[in-house]
Amino acid sequence: MKYYGNQGARNYARKFYSSKAWTVKSKAYRKSHPLCERCLKRGIYTKSTCVHHKEHISKDNCNDMSVLLGDDNLEALCDDCHAKEHSKRTYYEFNEDGSMVLGDDDE
After folding, report:
1. Nearest by Cα to 14 from 1, 25, 5
2. Residue 80: its H or E element
């Protein structure tokens, strides 16, 4: 199992990804979803390696337990599907002087 930890997480999500609640939930979710859910929809059997938030954690929802821990917002993915998901997301941030900068992924 590859551990993604909180290395790519935004500051407001890092504490959550290090929490016991997430550790327990993500292990339990993967145990009940041992195969990548996206691959499975295509008839491909690939072992899941992580639990992904469909609605990414943001400053606006970082305290919403249905977003953080709700099964409806979670998806077991393989490394390839997880990488594809995050590579298609681009958003922008602004630095202290108001200039736009390319932002990193939320998760």
Report:
1. 5
2. helix 79-87
Report residues of the chain scoring pLDDT below 50.
1-7, 104-107
pLDDT value of residue 7: 46
Q: What is the pLDDT of residue 50?
A: 94
Question: CA-to-CA distance for 67 and 49, rounded, in angstroms?
Answer: 20
3-state secondary structure of 20: helix
Q: Read out DSSP for 32-79?
A: H--B-HHHHHTT---B--EEEESS---TTTTT-HHHHH-GGGEEEE-H
Task: Supply the pTM of this predicted model.
Answer: 0.71
Query: 5 is written with which tokens?
Result: 């930890």
CA dist., res. 82 & res. 48, Å (int): 10
Q: Are 69 and 17 in contact (CB under 8 A)?
A: no
Rounded Cα–Cα distance for residues 39 and 77 (Å):
8
Task: For residue 89, give every residue at least 6 positions away whose Cβ sits within 8 Å of its Cβ, in sequence order, or none.
Answer: 56, 105, 106
